[in-house]
Amino acid sequence: MSKPSISTLGALKASGYQPVSIKEEIRRNLIKKLQAGETTFPGIVGYEDTVIPDVERAILSRHNMLFLGLRGQAKTRMARMMTHLLDEYIPVVAGSEINDDPFEPISKYAREVILHKGEDTPIEWLHRSQRYGEKLATPDVSVADLIGDIDPIKAANLKLSFSDEGVLHYGIIPRSNRCIFVINEIPDLQARIQVSLFNILEEGDIQIRGFKLRMPLDILFVFTANPEDYTNRGSIVTPLKDRIQSQILTHYPKSIETALTITEQEAAIHETQAKKVSVSDLIKRLIEQIAFEARNNEYVDKKSGVSARLSISAYENAWSSAERRGIINKEEKTQIWISDLQGIIPAITGKIELVYEGEQEGPFQVAMNLLDKAIRTQFTTYFPSPDGYKKRRQNSQQPAPENPYKAIQAWFDRGNLLELSVDFTDAFKLQELYKVDGLHALVKKYYKHANDFEAALLMEFVLHGLASYSVISKKAIDGKIEFKDLMGSMINLGPSIEDDEE
């Protein structure tokens, strides 16, 4: 739709334009989208059966709403996308600070312009992209910032008395009249400032200083917050919470598949990286699994949550890690190896809040443990669990199953050692992996159609997986990963897998 050409109040009346409130406007446009079977919040993944229906019900009820959830759950993204449900253009009185409706002006300026110019009052058209206001709640936010105050400089320049309405400076909320207005992290707003929102939410008007004026604002309010019990920074005062009609609970992705879609959608992969580096589904799943492990880890503060930004940042770092190695080795093409995931540790340590025990362990070690746990969890979806071969069958008459990892462990038991550097060339890494007896045969047994590089990645994955199950030992030092016999790296305690089988 192009910008309307109507430029005066008289022409607007002649066109038959009928103003509606913003909540009625969004409701009407949502109904049209639902009737047409269109996606109401494109790009929002994992909320199709939970959050989005709740938001749609709130809009149909013409409610102000509160998104309540942990960090990185697309709360602000959802609020910003509501602008797509607005009309493309609406008329406002030209020069108005608070987007006055030409048919129902509420500011002194707009009323006086219409009084003096009548049908010739100039009209401007406001695009929906300009009808969104947002404020991050911080302890220094004042009532004047949100609502407004007397402007002594304006009073002096215009030679007006402080009792004249013309000396008022409108805050961000009045300037968001006929718009969507969002306050992020509302608990961070001081309680006395939250009180100033009571009238706006219940009666729809504002009071500035001692002025006897009633300005019925037309605003859709959206608030975001972490659950109150999960933050020490503050809370939403009860009367304010009572005035917000719909409270919508957000959540993290419930499945790896949903998380994969979100990460691929949000990650900013440079076009040069995309041409030079390839990534397997295995690597993607391991990165997502780290976030799932972190959300249930005893060292990570569950009250703080683990943002989806962890997976996105880690995914970007994995690409960069492979790209860096390719540049150093002057390789035209490469892939992301398991060893490249050492490069995602900085993306993990900055995204998790640790409990006391986690702080004692150290963020680096916790991040490494999360990576190992992710490998352990995903390993059994690709290969048999090594645990099944570490214990005797209870029924001694039944023959023990053949251990598919027997040849690999035997190679390490003979004192062999495999050292993989993060910066090895792809060709040299393949050469090193093929040294391990039984490793390539194991991969080909379960993945017959894998090409050389796919098989090599799975071979490396097997070594990391066996280390996570304590079949062999793994030690990462200064950009090198060393695999060797578990018993050879410590005092001989307990039987090996072969002893168990015997």
Q: Could you name the ranges where pLDDT drops below 50 across 5 or more consecutive residues?
A: 392-396, 491-502
Hey, roughly how much beta strand do the residues contain? Answer: 5-15%
Task: Give the number of DSSP strands.
Answer: 14
Distance between the termini: 78 Å
Structural class: alpha/beta
Alpha plus pi helix count? 22
What value does the Rg take, in angstroms? 31 Å
**Dominant shape:** elongated
Strand order in the largest sheet: 4-7-8-1-9
Profile the largest sheet: 5 strands, parallel
Q: Portion of residues in helices?
A: 40-55%
Mean pLDDT: 88
Structural account:
The chain is an alpha/beta fold and 502 residues long. Helices cover 41% and strands 12% of the residues. It has 22 helices and 14 strands. The chain has a five-stranded parallel β-sheet with strand order 4-7-8-1-9, covered by helices on one side. The protein has a three-stranded antiparallel β-sheet with strand order 12-14-13. Helix 13 (281-295) packs across helix 14. The chain is elongated, with a radius of gyration of 31 Å. 34% of the residues are buried.
